[in-house]
Amino acid sequence: ILGQLGNTSPTTLLDLLDEPVLGRQDRLNMVGIAFTRLSRSEPDYALTLARELTDQTLRRAAYQQIFSEAAKNDPRQALELLESLNSQELVNSHAPDILMRLAKVDAEYALAWALERPLIGQMLFNQIIAQMAGSDLEEALDVVIALPESQSRVQHLGTIVARFGSENPTEALGLLDLLPPGQIRNTTTGEIVSSWARNDPAAVTAWILEQSPQLQSSLVSNVGYAIAGTNMDLARVLVTELPPSQARTSLIGQVTHLMVQSDMNSALVWAESLPAGPDRDEALETVISNMAMRDVDHALLLVPTLGNSQRQRGAYHNILSSWMQRDIEAAAQWVLSETDGALFQQSVSQVASAWATWNLDRAVNWLSKIEHTEARDHGLASLLHHSSLTETDAGRIISAIESPQLKLQGISTYVMQVARYDIETARAMISRFATSTEQLESLNQQLEMIESRF
To answer: Cβ of 3: how many Cβ atoms within 10 Å?
Structure first.
């Protein structure tokens, strides 16, 4: 009935809005039908009728229908209707939909309208630019170039130039001069070159080698892996031609990782052929970490060839991590028989912590047999990082630590974990675990700091 009446006489529907038999939803339906019909034929008249509605919800529904229909038929006229109401609230509500429709047929006008009204919001402006860039990159570029100087303009230029890069990288590189030096230009350059590397790694490699060392470093981190995945020989050429830098070292790690996946021996030969230094160590450490999954003994033999003690400890750590997943007993025995000094202490803690994740008693018993007091204490202290420890287990471990300093650190580690969810229990634990006045004061101060954050 409402539909038929709306088609023949929409104003009659509005005359019936006050009928007591009608419910709230009935009235909303009537407004929707009437104003949809009126907006198509007489938008100005529809707007006049909408302004006369006293019920705010019904009036809002009427405006929604009017501007929705007007935007479909003539978005520019819809904006004019909207402005005639002199209501910023209505502009904020309805302009976004109208402008997005207008941008499809006249993006420049839509942008100009939005620019004159900052309250519409930067997000809407961004959407119009994105829509333009999706359909006509050159038009979008022309429009953005004409915008006043601002950070927003630079961001839009970066977005559009990067999109050019996915279609025509060499043309996009020529557009980079539109961007001022800075993070946006660097990011855009990386995106362009990354797209280019997937399609023409040889051209990208040649281009990178012509750039300044600073630009080379930033680009290699973006495209090195893509080049190596497409053409390993090119990646090795790039590595040898680049000046020394952290980026080159990182690329060597990426190249080695890919080589290892296909041929471990070739990767090792290549790594050992590199000159001594960070690059060689990076390649060897990558080989060692992967080799540990297949041949622990060979991996262990290679570690001393690393030219840096810190890298050696890192390599041993990686080998142990892999080894313990397969045979923790053998890994633990190797630690006791083959390591010493800082490596021994580091490895004891690593094995004990890993063991404790599935069998705390085995970890504690293994540590108890270690004669080196400092290493044993560090290993015991590492167990207190496990959040699943019971208070009884924690107390047993703390009691076994001989070093007063490590005992205090161990108590702090465990108790402060408890304090995150139960301050009072943590406070009681401090009283039980502390073995001196100094420990008690120090732990209570730490607890007060945590409590003050809540």
So the answer is: 10
Which tokens go with 169? 């990288």
Handedness of CA 300, 305, 306, 307 (dihedral sign): positive
* Average pLDDT, rounded, for the chain: 86
b/e for 127-151, b at 16 or more Cβ within 10 A?
bbbebbbeeebeebbebbeebeeee
Phi, psi at 427, each rounded to 5°? -65, -40
DSSP 277-289: THHHHHHHHHHHH
**∠222-227-228 over CA atoms, to 5°?**
110
| Spatial distance between the Cα atoms of 239 and 233, rounded to a whole number of angstroms | 10
Q: Is the pLDDT of residue 436 over 90?
A: no
Q: Which of 16, 87, 79 lies closest to 43, judged by CA?
A: 79
CB 285 within 8 A of CB 315: yes
**CB neighbours (10 Å) of residue 300?**
19
Angle between helices 201-209 and 213-230 (to 10 degrees): 160
pTM, entire model: 0.61
Helix (H) or strand (E) run with residue 138 in it: helix 137-145
Number of neighbouring beta carbons within 10 Å of residue 87: 13
Domain ranges in the chain are 213-304, 363-453
Q: Which tops the pLDDT comparison, 300 or 219?
A: 300
User: Could you read off the pLDDT of 377-435 as tens digits, one per residue?
Assistant: 999 999 999 878 899 999 999 999 999 999 999 999 999 988 888 889 989 999 888 88
| 69-124 confidence digits (pLDDT tens) | 888 888 888 888 888 888 888 888 888 888 888 877 777 777 777 767 666 655 56
**CB 426 within 8 Å of CB 415:** yes
pLDDT digits (tens, 9 = 90+) for 45-60: 888 888 888 888 888 8
Closest CA to 107 of 70, 69, 147, 67: 147
